[in-house]
Design brief:
There is one protein chain. With 297 residues, the chain is an alpha/beta fold. It has a single domain (13-295), classed as Vaccinia Virus protein VP39 (Rossmann fold, 3-Layer(aba) Sandwich), CATH 3.40.50. Helices cover 44% and strands 13% of the residues. It is built from twelve helices and seven strands. It has a seven-stranded mixed beta sheet with strand order 3-2-1-4-5-7-6, with helices on both faces. Helix 3 (64-93) packs across helix 8 and helix 3 crosses helix 11. The longest helix has 30 residues, at 64-93.
Length: 297
């Protein structure tokens, strides 16, 4: 059950969803035909301990049974990771050197992507989540000037961001990946207002959002997934951590109405463009999930 001021560490509530994403990144990275490689994902998952590393053991995604169980969740994470990695390629080519990753969780892009010198990356998340990541990656060097901003995104995060050295006169590239549904609808609107206020022309944003249910519609696979998680000793009920989509603004409409140039895509398109086959079952699950970038002219 969510409350307005709930908090968490990496093993609980919304914090654990960041581990779930890292599991899927580790699983994709193991594939010989991986569409991206995130060598930090497995390291982070292993640092969490408990049963999580069981989910990435062996070549998880090449075992047909497990691949089916991971199904649409894995496809969604792969599609959106590729899409956002490419977004950052565009950002860098456009000369943007100030990046803000909202709800960074166990995202390792500050470490694994190539950043031109002078790039500053702000990572915002709950204090204990950032603390966990800093400890787990203590021996690794980020490829940019990475700055942690421990803050809840329902609070006055623009103030915390400014105090960490954010420069509102420079174009910024924002990322809100795997975040929006964990915010109440009005907190999402406030987040967008704040982003727009802090964005000079030339700024950009990428985000994703699911309008339906994230889990597979197939009850048999769903049960198999729950069993696998239970065997690993993990309890996570993503749907109970989400806020609904009723009365929630569609980000494409919001940014369009505020003068940003919006470009929308979806996971199935991204995966097929990159040569990854997508089953009908997965297509159906991902139909209501959007990927979006927008640029402030
Ligand atoms: C599904 S994970 C996504 C993490 C990361 N963006 C990625 O894709 O790997 C959700 C993340 O949102 C963070 N989060 C959700 N609501 C938040 C809030 N109100 N304030 C700060 N962080 C929040 C969680 O701590 C968690 O790290």
């Amino acid at each position: 059950m969510r409350t307005d001021d709930d908090s968490w560490d990496i093993t609980e509530s919304v914090g654990a969803t960041a581990v779930g994403v890292a599991v899927m990144r580790a699983v994709e990275t193991q594939r010989p035909d991986a569409l991206y490689r995130d060598p930090y994902a497995a390291k982070l998952v292993e640092a969490v301990g408990s049963g999580w590393s069981k989910l990435i053991g062996g070549e998880a995604d090449l075992d047909p049974e497990r691949a089916r169980v991971y199904g649409s969740v894995r496809s969604m994470m792969t599609g959106r990771t590729v899409y956002i990695d490419e977004y950052f390629g565009t950002v860098v080519a456009a000369g943007i050197r100030q990046i803000v990753i909202l709800a960074s969780g166990l995202d390792a892009r500050a470490y694994r992507l190539e950043w031109p010198s002078g790039t500053v990356i702000f990572e915002l998340d709950q204090p204990k989540v950032l603390e966990f990541k800093a400890t787990a990656l203590a021996q690794d060097r980020p490829a940019a000037d990475r700055r942690e901003v421990p803050i809840d995104l329902r609070q006055d995060w623009p103030k915390a961001l400014r105090e960490s050295g954010f420069d509102a006169t420079r174009p910024t590239a924002w990322l809100a990946e795997g975040l929006l549904r964990y915010l109440p609808a009005e907190a999402q609107d406030r987040l967008f207002d704040n982003i727009a206020e802090l964005s000079v022309p030339g700024s950009m944003i990428a985000l994703n959002m699911g309008f339906g249910q994230p889990q597979t519609r197939n009850p048999e696979i769903r049960a198999a997934r729950e069993k696998m998680m239970a065997q690993a000793g993990i309890r996570m009920d993503v749907e109970n951590l989400w806020y609904g989509t009723e009365n929630r603004t569609d980000p494409r409409d919001w940014f369009g109405a505020h003068g940003w140039k919006v470009s929308a895509s979806d996971v199935v398109t991204v995966l097929t463009e990159h040569g990854r086959e997508v089953s009908d079952e997965v297509r159906a699950d991902l139909r209501s999930h959007i990927l979006m970038t927008a640029a402030r002219p």
